[in-house]
Amino acid sequence: MLVHLDIKNFALIEHLVLEPCSKLNILTGETGAGKTIILDALGLILGERASSSFIRTGCNKATVQGVFKPSFYKKKIITQLLDEWNLPKEDDDSLILTREISLNKSICKINDHVVTLSKFKVLGKQLVDMHGQHEHQSLLSTDKHLDLLDAFGGHTILSVRKEISNLYDKFENVQTELDNLVEDPKERARKLELLAYQKQEIEDANLTVKEEEELTDLRKKLINVERLREAVGYSYQRLYAGDDYQSSVIDSLGLILDKLSSVVDVDDNLNNINKQLENSMIQLEEISREVSDYLEAIDINPIELQEVEERLSIYNELKRKYGNSVVEINHYFNKITAELEYLERAEDKRSELQQKRDKIKRKIIELSEQLREMRYDSKERLEQLIQKHLSELAMGKIQFAVKIFELDEITTKGMDKLEFQISPNPGEPLKPLNKVASGGELSRIMLALKSVFSEIDNIGTMIFDEIDTGISGDAAQKVADKLKQLSDINQVLCVTHLPQVASKADKHLKLTKKELDGRTFTVLEELDENQKINEIAKIIDGDKPSETSIKHAKNMIFGSN
Fold first, then answer.
1. Residue 44 to residue 92: CA distance in whole angstroms
2. pLDDT tens figures, 148-204
3. Residue 499 exposed, middle or buried by CB count within 10 Å (0-12, 13-18, 19+)
4. Is domain 1-133+457-527 annotated with CATH 3.40.50.300?
5. In 3D, which of 4, 20, 123, 147 has the Cα closest to residue 64?
6. Predicted TM-score (pTM) above 0.85
7. What does the alpha-carbon distance between residue 202 and residue 337 come to, in Å, rounded to a whole number?
8. Which of 11, 45, 126, 185 is the most buried (most CB within 10 A)?
9. E strands along 485-539, which residues?
10. Where are the domains of the chain?
């Protein structure tokens, strides 16, 4: 039950406090006064999405806070949720839901602890059943019909349906795997042949990063062999051999050593220089031998160069086909090896998946048949209850029926399609709601459904925003009686323009729009007995009600309660 609602800086509301009673609370007021604004604010603490446009002009933040006392039937569920979310409980078991909206963010709090919007939604479904102005239009959707019947069927039906839904997800996943397999045998054979050829080609090539580097270096050496021979030959000649015109470096150094050695005894300082020259001579002789060996090893071999070129061409060709480097080629090799293995066992995999899919499908069909039996049983009970409530809503001549169509295909909800049908007049055939029901009839059928579910769900608080749309006269009186009856079980908040409904109020709240210093404000006022009479008379007769209207209003109030 909603105990307290505090709204600040929300749309036209500067500050408003609503403290509804436990029975029938009626909200009336002129169009645009803010009745829907209050329900929008309430929706925010029940998990609806927020918008910065809700913030009152000139303010930085809007705040909505609601205090709830869960019904006896919902207290256990809510306690479990709070424990699961590690949230504290108030001493009196009340719940404080707070929503703060600023320009860039929205904050949700449960008992002063920040939570996600999804938690608000989960909790909201346990606290309030809200019926918006046009929700009765959802009755035109056959998907909604199936959901309503299953909800009426209770835990057993819903658990079977959930099991079917889980199995259907598995069924779809397996079917997707099957679809991803190559179905065409010719295409599979072609792909197998191509991948096998590519794999064999890479295997036969036996490529390595090290070999490619060595071959590249060798090729560079072979194609430059003449330059090498000329340069190394010249170096050897100048170092060691010399010629008719110029002695070698070693011969020249030998002459220098002879000259210095002859005068070492004259000046000891020359000893060090002489020794360095002797060491240099030894090094030059060693270098000359290495140069000579290198020169003898240089061999112009066209056949070797051709072999290197051919081997490197294999590297280049495979890089052109399968990757820009040996590393990438190896990655491609691993990829096609895995793909080959997959294709080679594809038939076995397909057979395995088909068996798995068919097994899941058989289980879904089995459960769907069980679900259908339960739906037929629930359908009869729902028809009887709806018919009872429709009779109480001045629709006794209308026949209501739930038509179940058995499907050949499995779905997440079983193998049934469902449709609510009515016969508006005796002797006329049953037809879908969207073909024959008027707005007023849809409103009353929705109210009948709400009445049925209120006895099952024990939600605690029910909110109706103009559930009486499209009705008048005796039908309006019956709707008023039904809302009053609902308030014996649940707290009811109802926005209405009908005097018949307003007259049933246990607490009558009026919203008015006022202007002060160029600003518009929405003001909430709880009406006393005389104010209530006057307000209902205004609904009947306009802003200046006649004595007759006032008398009529009194009769409606005191004759109905």
1. 24
2. 899 899 899 999 999 999 999 999 999 998 887 756 778 888 888 999 999 999 999
3. buried
4. yes
5. 4
6. no
7. 11
8. 45
9. 491-495, 507-516, 519-526
10. 1-133+457-527, 188-344
